[in-house]
Amino acid sequence: MSPPRAPGPQGPGPLYGEGPLTPSERRDYARLRKHEAMHHRRLRYAVTSVLLLLAFVLSPLAVVAAWANSQVSDTDRYVQTVAPLARDPSVQHAVTDKLTTRVVDNVDVKGITDALSNALAKTDAPPGIADKSHMLAGPIKNALTTAVHDVVDKVVTSDQFAELWDGANRRAHAAVVKTLTGEGNSAVQAKGDAVVLDLGTVVDKVKAKLVDEGYEKAANIPDTDKTITLFRTDKLDDAQGAMRLLDVVGTWLPVTAIVLAALAVWAAPGHRVALMAAAVGIGVMMIVLLVGLVVARRIYLDSVPAGVLPPDAAASIYDTFVRFLRNSTRTVLVTAVITTLAAYLYGPGRGARFVRSVSARGTGATGRAMARSGLRTGATGHWLETHRRWTTGIVIAAAAVALILWNYPTAAVVALVLGIAVVVLAVLAVLGAASTVHGTEKRENRS
Predict the structure, then answer these.
(1) CB 404 within 8 A of CB 344
(2) Backbone angles phi, psi at 395, to 5 degrees
(3) Which of 64, 293, 342, 401 is most buried as measured by Cβ atoms within 10 A of its Cβ?
(4) In terms of pLDDT, which residue wins out, 72 or 119?
(5) Do 429 and 367 contact (CB within 8 A), yes or no?
(6) Greater confidence, 275 or 164?
(7) What H or E segment, with its residue span, contains residue 334?
(8) What is the spatial distance between Cα 117 and Cα 384, in angstroms, rounded to a whole number?
(9) Contact 303, 232 (CB under 8 A)
(10) What is the per-residue pLDDT across 282-326, written as a single tens digit (0 to 9) for each?
(11) Which of 387, 413, 384 is nearest to 400 (CA)?
(12) Are 188 and 176 in contact (CB under 8 A)?
């Protein structure tokens, strides 16, 4: 019978020989294993760092891409975006003033005063009166401007105009897609270094209303220059190129960012720490995006001359167009904050242990009280108690799926889903603790 061999790698070869490892060989073997483990760990850290960096860089682009894609692919979303413009007082005032100016400019006030002068001359009016009839041009133009402005304002501020606006934008949505990519014509279109809104339908409505009010000459207003400038920038071509790119990657860029973050968490030596790092980094990038929107707003307002569009109307237009982008950014930020807190609460920190201990005592006490009162959950509660990790994972996964399937979730929706998930987890914990009275007391004593 051969003597027992010492534990450790054994076998033929120049390193190990035929017998057990010597102390020197064992130290070398341990050193090699430690070196290999450190090399492997460093490699995983390097891969995780690269994946996280890519996820951080892509996350704001993914939010912008998803927003742009929703605007060009979802007609209801697009109409929901532009609908408030027709009801915004500053935009209504700008449209009313512009249309009034165009209508009055097409009225031949000089012809009216000349006709009045000729009529006075034919009635043997004193020459001084007939010769000075041209001085009535100013008052006549002011009176005409006031009257036309009142008519146009009634049209622009009416519910009918808002409905007409929504309908026109809904019908033009397919053409708007081409506009955003720099192709074709639509209600909103690119001209040179400006993005303009075609008010042709509104102008026709105003002309008809003026005719009904007794201004027959309004029917002769030429069909030219029916646009109002929304944006003016010398970077329009670059913006259109970026929009086309975002339109192409709008679906896959968000998925790519999420997959990169998930791979980083999976590849990291410490999954929980990597999850916290991913959530914190993405949250910081969302803050950067919100700051960027504020800066872009200032740049946009500075680029629009007051003569083209009043500052208050320009601000309303910008805020209206990007409000859903802001909402999406805030939603991702809130989600990142919640993920960071959740990852921390599952960690070994003193605060995390305290929160877990308090919640466990609270649900346990409630469950034991239910059991003493006769509301025992029996085998079902025992299963919930012994499979708490599985049930917790299922609830968290269900909450994540709900947010993914929710159509454009907001920060309030995220908070609502989180609240429901917490309540469900608490209920499951109470049901698990209510399985038996003695079982829960024994578990409490062991802890």
Answers:
(1) no
(2) -65, -45
(3) 64
(4) 72
(5) yes
(6) 275
(7) helix 311-345
(8) 98
(9) yes
(10) 999 999 999 999 999 999 888 888 777 788 888 888 898 889 999
(11) 413
(12) yes
Task: Give the distance, in angstroms, between the CA of residue 281 and the centroid of all CA atoms in the same chain.
Answer: 18
Task: Output the DSSP codes for 398-409.
Answer: HHHHHHHHSSS-
User: Which residue in 145, 142, 164 sits closest to 153, CA to CA?
Assistant: 145
Q: How far is CA 149 from CA 103, 155, 212, 331, 393, in A?
A: 9, 10, 15, 43, 64
Phi, psi of 259 (to 5 degrees): -65, -40
9, 16 in Cβ contact below 8 A? Answer: yes
Name the residue among 154, 141, 178, 161 with its Cα closest to residue 86.
161
Alpha carbons 355 and 359: distance in angstroms, whole number: 6
pTM of the full structure: 0.68
Please, is 82 exposed, middle or buried when counting C-beta atoms within 10 Å of its C-beta (0-12, 13-18, 19+)?
buried
pLDDT tens, position by position, 194-211: 666 666 666 777 777 777
Longest dimension (CA), the chain: 149
Contact 120, 230 (CB under 8 A): no
252: confidence class by pLDDT, cuts 50, 70, 90? confident
Is the distance from CB of 268 to CB of 274 less than 8 angstroms? yes
Three-state secondary-structure class, residue 229: strand
The pLDDT assigned to 230 comes to 61
pLDDT of 328 higher than 60: yes
Strand spans (E) along 216-326? 227-232
Alpha-carbon distance of 390 to 393, in angstroms, equals 5
Q: Which two tokens stand for residue 359?
A: 């919640």
Give burial (CB, 10 Å; 0-12/13-18/19+) of 159.
exposed
> How many of the other CB atoms lie within 10 Å of CB of 417?
19
Residue 18 tokens, joined: 């035929």
CA 167 to chain centre: 25
DSSP type of residue 87: G
More confident residue, 20 or 48: 48
Q: For residue 428, give the amino acid letter.
A: L
- CA nearest neighbour of 20 among 33, 8, 36: 8
pLDDT per position as a tens digit, 21-53: 677 767 666 666 766 666 667 788 888 999 999
What element of type H or E holds 56?
A: helix 23-73
Q: What is the DSSP secondary structure assignment for residue 152, as one 8-state letter?
A: H
Helices vs strands, H then E, count in the chain: 18, 3
Cα 24 to the chain's mean position, in Å?
63
Quick check: 133 and 116 in contact, CB under 8 A?
A: yes
Cβ atoms of residues 69 and 243 within 8 Å: no
Q: What strand order describes the sheet that includes 194-198? A: 188-191, 194-198, 227-232
